[in-house]
Amino acid sequence: MYLQIISLSASANKLSNIQKQAEEYAALIMEELDPDHLGCIMIDNLEMLLLQAPAQSVKGGESRNLSHMLSQKLKPTQFDNPIRRCCDSTTYFLLDNWQRVWVMALWIGVMAGLFTYKYIQYKNRAAFEVMGHCVCMAKGAAETLKFNMALILLPVCRNTITWLRNKTKLGGVVPFDDNLNFHKVIALGISIGVGIHAISHLACDFPRLINASEEKYEPMEPYFGDQPKNYWHFVKSVEGVTGIVMVVLMAIAFTLATPWFRRNKLNLPKPLKKLTGFNAFWYSHHLFVIVYTLLIVHGQYLYLTKKWYKKTTWMYLAIPICLYATERLIRALRSSIKAVSIQKVAVYPGNVLALHMSKPDRFRYKSGQYMFVNCAAVSPFEWHPFSITSAPDDDYLSVHIRTLGDWTRQLRTVFSEVCYFPRVLIDGPYGAPAQDYKEYEVVLLVGLGIGATPMISIVKDIVNNMKAIEEEEENDLENGRDTGFNTTTSSSSTTTTSPSSSGHRRRDQFRTRRAYFYWVTREQGSFDWFKGVMNEVAELDHNNVIELHNYCTSVYEEGDARSALIAMLQSLNHAKNGVDVVSGTRVKSHFAKPNWRNVYKRVALNHPDSRVGVFYCGAPALTKELRHLALDFSHKTSTKFDFHKENF
């Protein structure tokens, strides 16, 4: 009977591993509740175990205080005056987003200045008498277009951004982690500029030229030749052909870059499926090689500008194109010098492929960073970014790749079916928000599904640093060295020397003193991806530095009758074997989704007057809630939360 009940409960909660081991767990229940081997279970014993609140993975005495802590009210300040409320909201927004605000203000200001400059310039030229304000609008928009076409290359120069972020002080004032978002904003600016430029010419300038009187058109002859009779005069020109082709290519690239196409969100007929997905986005984006070539040609055949030094298109583009070309050349050379060797390949539940590879000699990275991976057996041209899941001190590199798109599916097929490991190239590492975790003594790491990958690297790095500190301090003690700070007092002054032990030096360099890791996943099998890391943390974290919280959302929330038997099995098995029945690790799992407000509240109450780094990687849906809570608690409590999201 219990075997059937366990199977039904496991099926209802989508726990396939428990279904497979139902017989073993049924025997465990009988062993616990029928110690005298009577062949039956007393109802009182069963009720007591079912109603017992499952002890979760909160360490030490914290579980006893948690209910009291969470019951405390953290209410927002109420303002009766709407003006005061608006002023405070604006102030909070500026304090939290001042880096983005000044960059956007500068960008908009430069565009406004360029547009105004060109508008006034053409208002004072003879062309204004024929084409009016239309030519001013077209030329003003063209000037912003040239600026934005140059600027849009800079956010994708990843080597340059990583260097500026890591080696200069600009990282404190420029939001380099928002580079891809800024790239998209500039693309929107380009779209608006193209629209204004094209409409002003087609709907206004050209009709005015065609319909102008001979006397009024006469000053335009040096620029346009004989007065045009129809639109074909403009279409067949170099300006017209290059302009039309550029607009078509840009429309294709921008359309396929939208989330609906890039993420296969459109339910298109099968013949049109090739127009969606990452491959379509990647190849269409390389149409911009043609676009930039045509843009330079377009700028050399301007109707109203004949002097070479006034044809400024190439001046705008020269430095950004050279910088971008250098970046691509560096990537090609750096990655082709030596291909990494694949040491281990594992295919996990949830369609996840793990690659362990050799680490090149000069490959230095920080936890939280990412690198690009290329596999010629899938595509010799495509490079895809993945978070590095190994720690900097590990003697290997690893990535965990979930098969979500066409390229990743082909990669998994190649590594699953071939008799040898195909050649793999890597390029990186590149900067990411999570690498800044060492700036905080307290960090809150949140991973959704495969979004746990950069957080795992951080957790491993913390563990490695803990082990190294312990080993160094043990060596110092064995050698008779003082592991504390030496203070020397003289008659004239008191001086404090730096720590004598290397263990203390490392401890001083490693700021993180407390880490909370929340991993939320739908599938029980996902926990297999990082089972070794979870067990290592549970074994080595003697000082309770890392607090692990695994959530399986397929299981009904704790307290629900449908998950009561699972909770009972969890308690029994963990008490007897030290293994969680859901995750298969030494870390006990939670059911359903976390209450994120309670998570923030608990961290705020545990760490008053502290700065907490919140790092999130996963689906965009949770970004808004986590960011809002970070701002909310930063304003309501003495704890300040800095929210960071992986954007690559």
UniProtKB/TrEMBL annotation:
For this entry, the protein name equals Respiratory burst oxidase
